[in-house]
Amino acid sequence: MVHGEQASSRPKPASEAFPDLAEAGPRVPSQCEPHRSFIEEALARGRNAKAIWQHLSDQHGFEGHYESIKRFVRRLRLSEPVAHPRIETEPGEEAQVDYGTGPLVRDPSTGKYRRTRLFAMTLGHSRKAVWLLAWRSSARTCCLLHEEAFRRLGGAPKIIVLDNLREGVLTPDVYDATINPLYRDCLGHYGVVALPAKVRDPNRKGKVESSIGFAQKTPLRGMRFESLEEAQRYLDQWTERWADTRIHGTTKRQVAAMFAEERPTLQPLPVQPFRYFEYGVRVVHLDGCIEVAKGYYGVPPRWIGQQVYVRWDQLFVRILDPKTGELLREHLRQKPGHYRVDARDRSPKTPAGVLHLLQRARSFGKHIGRVCELIEQRRDQYSARHILGVLGLVKKRGFNTVDDCCRTALEAGYANYRIVRTLVDRTPAHGPQLRQVDGLIRELSLYRELIDAKTNDPHGPDRTRPLPPEAPPVGHGQHPAHTARPGAG
């Protein structure tokens, strides 16, 4: 009886399991069998079935079809299964992340049901998983989902194993992958290192792959929700009620119990959240600036014509060396159309157009030229416009008025266009008022002495008496006017 039970437990031969094959007669040997050694060697070198078929047809006179080679190669691969070792990690050491297809949720903008994205983070030791739903995926969305997962876990692991999506990896490479700068800095803020899996190697992150399939098949299959919040709330309740309390098939322990042991080993979360930024590549223009969000920011002159990395947020613009990551310049954000240039990066050369304006300003007056020179020395984005403004005042009010106002501005220490324009506007239209003391105006005492000397002589003016210094000579046949004294005659 025992022998019969043992015999019944053995697998049935193919002829009994599939009677149709037994009736068809013995199996015909494959046309590829004589070339088995060549096919096995080619497969070992990484050649595919198409290349093997073409080579056999050209070099060995193989007359079979391509489908024959495909079936033979398939049987050879199935006959030699490859064992995949189980990856065990220490508590708090590793977490795996991946995306999958989420449930149908009604889109508030269109009113129609729409597929969502299912994000999963699974701890490698305890298999504790966090499932989150999102409408779409992007670099910033990916970082936000990681932050939310860290908060729900109460800490962060040391390593994140991820797929090669562009949200996390710009250039896949098993030895030196290029990580998305925003994603890398976000993980670095939490002390986490990104470790991309090998391309087309899902077994490296098999735990999160199983986690995605588990959530898709069990709580979300065939479900529809009216809002994303409702769907997330339903998924959280299922996670707490069923997923965390299950006995895991590999560890044979409850997930919640293992997570209670792993949680203290996670890295503590920082006090401040990560500050998000945008990034890009820019070419430095000939004026030594780059354009970011319609604003212009200065770069050291040696980078003219070269590419630099740029990161910006609502407050700052940071310009980095693309090779070393060194910070070249940091500027405050400017309004569109405005410039921000460090004093160290200003060009020592004055543009030819500005030199021509300065030459015109000097020709209008000494003080006008000096004010325009001081304006140009500031080398900001408004210098040329302010010089043009001063020259426009000369055209409107005349160079005498403007030159006098420029002298007043220089004496006051405010040599700029706004002050000069204010002084010009306050000057009467008939011209500036003469001052009491000026290089072109003699002292009034000189005129008084001259008048007294001429009017005190009863015999007329004394022609032998020298005139006061700098007094104008009296013309031939002309006499100074005699003014009668009060009460005379």
Write a concise synopsis of the structure shown.
The chain has 489 residues and is an alpha/beta fold. It has helices at residues 2-9, 14-17, 19-24, 36-44, 49-59, 66-79, 139-153, 181-189, 206-217, 228-243, 255-262, 352-364, 366-377, 383-397, 399-412, 417-426, 444-455; strands at residues 94-106, 113-123, 129-134, 159-162, 169-171, 178-179, 193-196, 224-225, 278-283, 289-292, 295-298, 307-312, 316-320, 327-332, 339-340.
CATH level-two architecture of the largest domain: 2-Layer Sandwich
What is the helical fraction, as a range of percent?
25-40%
CATH class of the largest domain: Alpha Beta
Under CATH, the topology of the largest domain is which?
Answer: Nucleotidyltransferase, domain 5
Q: Specify the number of helices.
A: 17
Percentage of residues in DSSP E strands: 15-25%
Low-confidence stretches: 1-15, 17-25, 460-464, 473-489
Radius of gyration, rounded? 45 Å
Profile the largest sheet: 6 strands, mixed
Question: Would you write up a description of this structure?
Answer:
The protein has helices at residues 2-9, 14-17, 19-24, 36-44, 49-59, 66-79, 139-153, 181-189, 206-217, 228-243, 255-262, 352-364, 366-377, 383-397, 399-412, 417-426, 444-455, and strands at 94-106, 113-123, 129-134, 159-162, 169-171, 178-179, 193-196, 224-225, 278-283, 289-292, 295-298, 307-312, 316-320, 327-332, 339-340. Mean pLDDT is 83; it is low at 1-15, 17-25, 460-464 and 473-489. It has 17 helices and 15 strands. The strands form four sheets. Strands 1, 2, 3, 4, 7 and 8 form a six-stranded mixed sheet that branches. The longest helix is centred in the middle third of the chain and has 16 residues, at 228-243. It folds into four domains: 2-79, no CATH class; 94-265, Ribonuclease H-like superfamily/Ribonuclease H (Nucleotidyltransferase, domain 5); 278-345, Roll (SH3 type barrels); 352-426, no CATH class. 38% of the residues lie in helices and 16% in strands. It is an alpha/beta fold and 489 residues long. Helix 12 (352-364) runs parallel beside helix 14, helix 13 runs antiparallel to helix 14 (383-397) and helix 15 crosses helix 16. 24% of the residues are buried.
